[in-house]
Please model this.
Amino acid sequence: MTTISRHPAAEERPADGRRRPAFPFGLWRRRPAPRLVTDFDDPALARLREAIGAGDWPAVRERLAAAADAEELCRLVWHASGAPGTTELMGRVMDREPDGTLALLMAGAHHIDWAWEARTGARASQVSKEQFRVFHQRLEVAEDLLYRVAEREPDWVAPWFMLQVSGRGLQVGPQIARLRFEAAVRRSPGHLGAHRQHLQQVCAKWGGSHGEMHDFARESMLSAPEGSPLGELVALAHLEHWLDLEPGEDAEYIGRPDVRARLLEAAHRSIGDPAFGRPRDWIGVHNTFAMALSLAGEREAAAAAFAPLEGRVTEFPWQYLDSADPVAAFRKWRSRAGR
Model:
């Protein structure tokens, strides 16, 4: 396995001469069955989605108001805004309290989710004019709502993070997209979600390029302290590049020595560093590295990425391998890694 020499954890050998694991995560005592994670295994998010499903806006508002910080509020609103029942609930809420700041934020986030639902995940050539019309109309409503929130709460990261997504759909252009990203990270410098969204903005399928995408990912990782989850951006960039290639070319690309070295470096700087701990989306970050390292043929490093998950599977990025059953894809590659 390729190692990164400046990371002692990747090279250290005990007295018996045997090689240590790529990252010091410890050993598994058993092999938990894989399961698709719902609500990121976060009870607070699960309760919020339950309140939305019950149509209980006072409970929703109370849970949002109790968020630990602006980043946590952003995460809760974003991941709850697509819960079943949100359209009906927010329709009633906006009729009753059209100026409530939390209501505006939730409605703005929901309109983005609702817009992408209308567009579907199909390629642009397969999306009808009517679908695009509804898509843009809902995104324009979202932008109006989110700008109102940004004016009222200038320190909140949430509206700027969400405006990155609506802006990409409305094709606001690279300059405005960059300004929105910068507005988000001024308020929350290490915001993983904002960085993920800008990575999408600069990738080839949204008008950027592979070079711009890889440069952004690496620069973001190197600018962050070791142990930062921003190292995931490097893995995401290589997965995006892999996904853009034809069968055969994709496997050749992600198995290249230079790509493997970049993936190992990013893993050691993020999930392999003791400072990584358990950030808010650690499950998603580990799943991303587990898939990227598996495809690259780095079995030992992939096993280290799989280990702390204890079978927790996120739909992304495994749906790239099996859209119908991401758990099956996880199970297959975890087995290949010896986990």
